[in-house]
Amino acid sequence: MGMKKSLLAACVLSGAAAAHADVSAAPGYCNTTYEVTITNLTLAQVLSPPLVVSHAPGVHLYAVGEPASEGLEALAEGGDTSVLTAALLDDPAVCAAETGADVVPPGHSLRVLVKGSRQSVFSFATMLVNTNDAFAAADGVAAPLARQAVTRMVPAYDAGSELNDESCAHVPGPACGGAGTGADDGEGFVHVHRGIHNVGDLAADEYDWRNPAARVEIRRVR
Q: Residue 90 sits in which domain range?
């Protein structure tokens, strides 16, 4: 992975697994449970265990047009949520950060329970694992009112941190089983992903997709 500017100042931290934020510093803030359901809308792209975050407005997992943080780079290249989770949980504006228990195959859904408040916004990110550095994500979705659900259709972005060589040596998903990093830097900023283009080992007629890549539904459960 190449050197990146960090969007989150705390992204120099690493190594913590996904976990609940310590809510003792904010009594009564993170006491509502939300169910976040991620559905894979692609034909042949498996989604890595998704990271779901509840937080105050002003916290961002990514910014289109800006370089990926160290944590986003790790997630988009190898599905590793630990670096981004550690950075997020060091921020007092973050309520909780949870990683799903499993991958999300095409046409399937996964539910993640996360604590938050009625003033929280929610963000999520997951890697399209049969790619170099594609991730589907939503940023700052407002908490639903009452028991109503909030639904967002989300595209796949390119983290811009790894060259899209589509080489099995650098693609970690079941199509290849390679390393989750490439030897060369990518475009240098987050942008909408261009898909698979038959430049390497991945067949576009099988692994390409059209956006949206995923659907996210947020519902308050208790």
A: 9-220
Interior/surface letters 186-220, b for 16+ CB within 10 angstroms, e for the rest: bbebbeebebbeeebbbeeeebbbebbbbbbbbbb
Number of domains the chain contains: 1
CATH of residue 178's domain is: 2.60.40.2130
Cβ atoms of 20 and 31 closer than 8 Å:
no
Please give the chain's pLDDT, 222 residues, in tens. Answer: 443 332 222 222 223 333 333 333 343 579 999 999 999 999 999 999 999 999 999 999 999 999 999 999 999 999 999 999 999 999 999 999 999 999 999 999 999 999 999 889 999 999 999 999 999 999 999 988 877 899 999 999 999 999 999 999 999 999 999 987 766 789 999 999 999 999 999 999 999 999 999 999 999 998
